Amino acid sequence: MNPQKEITDEMLIAIRRVIRAVDLHSRKLNQGYALTGPQALILKEISAGNGPSAGELAKKVSLRFADAVDRVVEELQKEGFGVITQIDVRETLKNKLDIDFRPYIILGACNPQYAHQALTVDDRIGTLLPCNFVVQEVEDGTEVLAMNPHET
User: CB of 151 within 8 A of CB of 54?
Assistant: First the structure.
Protein backbone atom coordinates (compact mmCIF):
# COMPACT_ATOMS: atom_id res chain seq x y z
CA MET A 1 0.00 0.00 0.00
CA ASN A 2 1.10 3.56 -0.67
CA PRO A 3 2.58 5.16 2.52
CA GLN A 4 1.09 8.56 1.59
CA LYS A 5 -2.39 7.01 1.29
CA GLU A 6 -1.95 5.27 4.67
CA ILE A 7 -1.11 8.58 6.36
CA THR A 8 -4.06 10.27 4.65
CA ASP A 9 -6.40 7.47 5.73
CA GLU A 10 -5.11 7.64 9.32
CA MET A 11 -5.62 11.42 9.37
CA LEU A 12 -9.17 11.07 8.06
CA ILE A 13 -9.97 8.47 10.71
CA ALA A 14 -8.52 10.73 13.44
CA ILE A 15 -10.50 13.72 12.18
CA ARG A 16 -13.71 11.64 12.12
CA ARG A 17 -13.05 10.55 15.72
CA VAL A 18 -12.58 14.15 16.84
CA ILE A 19 -15.76 15.24 15.05
CA ARG A 20 -17.68 12.36 16.62
CA ALA A 21 -16.37 13.20 20.10
CA VAL A 22 -17.30 16.87 19.68
CA ASP A 23 -20.76 15.86 18.44
CA LEU A 24 -21.33 13.54 21.41
CA HIS A 25 -20.12 16.18 23.86
CA SER A 26 -22.35 18.83 22.23
CA ARG A 27 -25.40 16.59 22.46
CA LYS A 28 -24.71 15.83 26.13
CA LEU A 29 -24.22 19.54 26.86
CA ASN A 30 -27.43 20.42 25.05
CA GLN A 31 -29.47 17.73 26.80
CA GLY A 32 -28.13 18.49 30.26
CA TYR A 33 -27.98 22.27 30.13
CA ALA A 34 -29.81 23.38 26.96
CA LEU A 35 -26.57 24.98 25.76
CA THR A 36 -24.50 24.66 22.62
CA GLY A 37 -20.73 24.28 22.77
CA PRO A 38 -20.09 27.90 21.72
CA GLN A 39 -22.60 29.17 24.30
CA ALA A 40 -20.84 27.17 27.03
CA LEU A 41 -17.46 28.60 25.99
CA ILE A 42 -18.82 32.14 26.08
CA LEU A 43 -20.35 31.58 29.53
CA LYS A 44 -17.05 30.14 30.75
CA GLU A 45 -15.16 33.21 29.51
CA ILE A 46 -17.72 35.59 31.01
CA SER A 47 -17.60 33.83 34.39
CA ALA A 48 -13.79 33.97 34.33
CA GLY A 49 -14.01 37.71 33.86
CA ASN A 50 -12.71 37.50 30.31
CA GLY A 51 -16.05 38.08 28.64
CA PRO A 52 -17.40 41.11 26.91
CA SER A 53 -18.78 44.04 28.83
CA ALA A 54 -22.39 45.09 28.40
CA GLY A 55 -21.33 47.66 25.83
CA GLU A 56 -19.45 45.05 23.87
CA LEU A 57 -22.62 43.01 23.53
CA ALA A 58 -23.91 45.66 21.13
CA LYS A 59 -23.92 44.96 17.44
CA LYS A 60 -24.47 47.39 14.63
CA VAL A 61 -26.60 45.90 11.91
CA SER A 62 -27.07 46.96 8.33
CA LEU A 63 -30.85 46.89 8.49
CA ARG A 64 -33.46 49.59 8.68
CA PHE A 65 -34.79 50.05 12.21
CA ALA A 66 -38.16 48.30 11.68
CA ASP A 67 -36.49 45.43 9.83
CA ALA A 68 -33.97 45.05 12.66
CA VAL A 69 -36.77 44.79 15.23
CA ASP A 70 -38.48 42.11 13.14
CA ARG A 71 -35.20 40.24 12.66
CA VAL A 72 -34.38 40.26 16.39
CA VAL A 73 -37.85 38.86 17.17
CA GLU A 74 -37.38 36.14 14.50
CA GLU A 75 -33.95 35.17 15.83
CA LEU A 76 -35.21 35.05 19.42
CA GLN A 77 -38.07 32.79 18.35
CA LYS A 78 -35.62 30.47 16.59
CA GLU A 79 -33.84 30.10 19.95
CA GLY A 80 -37.08 29.32 21.80
CA PHE A 81 -37.66 32.81 23.20
CA GLY A 82 -41.00 34.52 23.07
CA VAL A 83 -41.21 38.30 23.09
CA ILE A 84 -43.58 39.04 25.96
CA THR A 85 -43.13 42.82 26.16
CA GLN A 86 -42.34 45.46 23.60
CA ILE A 87 -41.80 49.02 24.80
CA ASP A 88 -41.61 51.77 22.22
CA VAL A 89 -39.55 54.30 24.17
CA ARG A 90 -39.89 56.95 21.47
CA GLU A 91 -43.68 56.75 21.54
CA THR A 92 -43.84 56.62 25.35
CA LEU A 93 -41.62 59.69 25.79
CA LYS A 94 -43.63 61.59 23.19
CA ASN A 95 -46.99 60.69 24.78
CA LYS A 96 -45.97 61.18 28.42
CA LEU A 97 -43.44 64.02 28.26
CA ASP A 98 -43.84 65.49 24.76
CA ILE A 99 -40.16 64.71 24.12
CA ASP A 100 -38.85 63.69 20.71
CA PHE A 101 -36.51 60.72 20.90
CA ARG A 102 -34.84 58.49 18.33
CA PRO A 103 -36.44 55.14 17.42
CA TYR A 104 -35.75 52.90 20.43
CA ILE A 105 -37.53 49.62 21.23
CA ILE A 106 -37.03 47.43 24.31
CA LEU A 107 -37.97 43.79 23.71
CA GLY A 108 -38.58 41.66 26.80
CA ALA A 109 -38.00 38.03 25.84
CA CYS A 110 -38.29 34.81 27.80
CA ASN A 111 -37.45 31.17 27.19
CA PRO A 112 -39.56 29.27 29.75
CA GLN A 113 -37.12 26.35 29.96
CA TYR A 114 -34.12 28.60 30.61
CA ALA A 115 -36.11 30.77 33.02
CA HIS A 116 -37.18 27.73 35.03
CA GLN A 117 -33.64 26.38 35.18
CA ALA A 118 -32.28 29.73 36.33
CA LEU A 119 -35.03 30.25 38.92
CA THR A 120 -34.44 26.82 40.44
CA VAL A 121 -30.78 27.72 40.95
CA ASP A 122 -31.47 31.18 42.40
CA ASP A 123 -34.96 32.65 42.58
CA ARG A 124 -33.51 36.17 42.74
CA ILE A 125 -32.70 35.82 39.05
CA GLY A 126 -36.31 36.91 38.49
CA THR A 127 -35.12 40.49 38.88
CA LEU A 128 -33.37 40.05 35.53
CA LEU A 129 -36.37 38.54 33.76
CA PRO A 130 -37.47 38.90 31.09
CA CYS A 131 -34.22 39.20 29.19
CA ASN A 132 -34.16 42.63 27.58
CA PHE A 133 -32.92 43.41 24.11
CA VAL A 134 -32.74 46.93 22.71
CA VAL A 135 -32.99 47.95 19.09
CA GLN A 136 -32.12 51.59 18.57
CA GLU A 137 -31.39 53.92 15.74
CA VAL A 138 -27.91 55.39 16.06
CA GLU A 139 -26.04 57.98 14.05
CA ASP A 140 -24.70 55.56 11.46
CA GLY A 141 -27.39 52.87 11.39
CA THR A 142 -29.20 50.54 13.73
CA GLU A 143 -27.80 48.90 16.85
CA VAL A 144 -28.95 45.81 18.74
CA LEU A 145 -27.98 45.58 22.43
CA ALA A 146 -28.14 42.87 25.08
CA MET A 147 -27.06 43.14 28.71
CA ASN A 148 -24.41 40.89 30.19
CA PRO A 149 -26.20 39.58 33.30
CA HIS A 150 -22.87 39.05 35.09
CA GLU A 151 -22.33 42.82 35.17
CA THR A 152 -25.67 43.78 36.71
Answer: yes
Distance, CA of 121 to CA of 116 (rounded, Å): 9
For residue 72, count other CB atoms closer than 10 A to its CB: 23
In sequence order, the 6+-apart residues with CB closer than 8 A to the CB of 89 are 101, 104, 105, 106
C-alpha span between 10 and 18 (Å, rounded): 12
Q: What is the b/e burial string over 26-48, where b = at least 16 CB atoms within 10 angstroms of the residue's CB?
A: eeeeeeeeebeeeeeeeeeebee
CB 133 within 8 A of CB 146: yes
The residues that bridge with 137 in the sheet, in sequence order, are: 142
CA distance 152 to 22: 33
Say whether pTM exceeds 0.85. Answer: no
Q: CA Rg, the chain, in Å?
A: 21
Q: What is the pLDDT of residues 62-111, one digit of tens each?
A: 888 999 999 999 989 988 899 999 999 999 999 999 999 999 999 999 98
* β-sheet with 104-110: strand ranges across: 59-61, 141-146, 131-138, 104-110, 82-88
